[in-house]
TrEMBL record:
GO CC terms: plasma membrane
Alphabetical list of Pfam families matching this protein: EIID-AGA
Keywords, in A-Z order: Membrane, Transmembrane, Transmembrane helix
GO biological process: phosphoenolpyruvate-dependent sugar phosphotransferase system
InterPro entries in the cross-refs: GatZ_KbaZ_carbometab, PTS_IID_man
Entry keyword Nucleus: no
Organism domain of life: Bacteria
The organism's taxonomic lineage, starting at the top: Bacteria, Bacillati, Bacillota, Bacilli, Bacillales
Gene that produces this protein: PTS-EII_5
Protein name, as recorded: PTS mannose transporter subunit IID
Spans traversing the lipid bilayer: 179-197, 229-246, 253-273
Keyword Transmembrane helix: yes
Length: 274
């Protein structure tokens, strides 16, 4: 495939990619933003105004994916717009529809559920210790990966073109990376539950002495007993409960759950249960 776009054109794609969500709407979600992002490619590809209008209208259809997945899809779409004939243009939207779901899941797994928790825990640990470096370090590390991946995906996706799709079909690359990212993400979340979420109880059980029969001579700390069975089991129980409620309500009452958790924590702490 002959490459017609210059580095300047790819830079325009990258810059417009970063503002795709400004035009987010309930009808087409990122459809209008995608059309605006790829507009420089369409203007360079179509010299006829009517063909250009049809192409822009075609790219305003429903579209939604992760922002890093947007970079890959935008670049591959640009390559297809250059290399396909008039009868194959409708297949471009099929390509976008087919890619936006898997790449959205891949982006969420790698960025939101893996990289963000990792650097967030690092930044939070430094911040809790009183260091201002924590949030600054998190901001820098996040954008090195986030912005870097977008630009690399634009350049690589355009150069690879259709070959990217063929490679994925042969090796199932996207699915393999997504599975690995999910595993790492679950490990990170599991580690965060035991290190960040602190739920402990000061309750104690007093038992009578086997010799004198007096109450209060032997004291069993419930928290110590639970830690011997499974450390951080209360933290795990709270996490699972909140997750179950959020899943049951589809996250529609997240704010109310936060308020209830705060009130319960205050009440249970006041009565000496937590």
């Amino acid at each position: 495939m002959e490459q017609k776009l210059t580095k300047r054109d790819l830079w325009k794609l990258f810059m417009r990619l970063n503002t795709m969500r400004i035009t987010l709407n309930y009808e087409t979600l990122q459809g209008v933003g995608f059309m605006r992002a790829i507009a420089p490619v369409l203007e360079k590809t179509y010299t006829d105004k009517e063909e250009l209008s049809d192409a822009m209208r075609r790219h305003t259809q429903f579209y939604n994916s992760h922002v890093n997945g947007d970079a890959v899809i935008l670049a591959v779409t640009a390559a297809m717009e250059e290399s396909t004939g008039p009868d194959e243009k409708e297949g471009i939207n099929s390509l976008k529809t087919g890619l936006m779901g898997p790449l959205a899941g891949l982006g969420d797994s790698l960025i939101k559920f893996t990289w963000v928790p990792i650097i967030g825990s690092i930044g939070a640990s430094l911040a809790f210790s009183g260091s201002i470096i924590g949030p600054i370090l998190m901001f820098i590390l996040y954008n090195i990966v986030n912005i870097g991946l977008r630009y690399y995906a634009i350049v690589y996706g355009y150069k690879k073109g259709i070959g990217f799709l063929n490679d994925n079909q042969e090796s199932n690359l996207i699915q393999r990376i997504s599975t690995m990212a999910n595993v790492v993400g679950l490990m990170v979340v599991g580690a965060l539950i035991s290190t960040i979420i602190k739920v402990q109880t000061p309750l104690e059980i007093s038992t009578g002495s086997s010799v004198t029969g007096e109450v209060g001579e032997n004291v069993i700390a419930i928290q110590e007993m639970l830690d011997q069975i499974m450390p951080s089991v209360l933290s795990l129980a709270v996490t699972i409960t909140v997750y179950h409620v959020l899943k049951k309500t589809k996250g529609s009452h997240a704010a109310m759950i936060i308020v209830i958790m705060m009130l319960l924590t205050i009440a249970l702490t006041y009565f000496g249960i937590l």
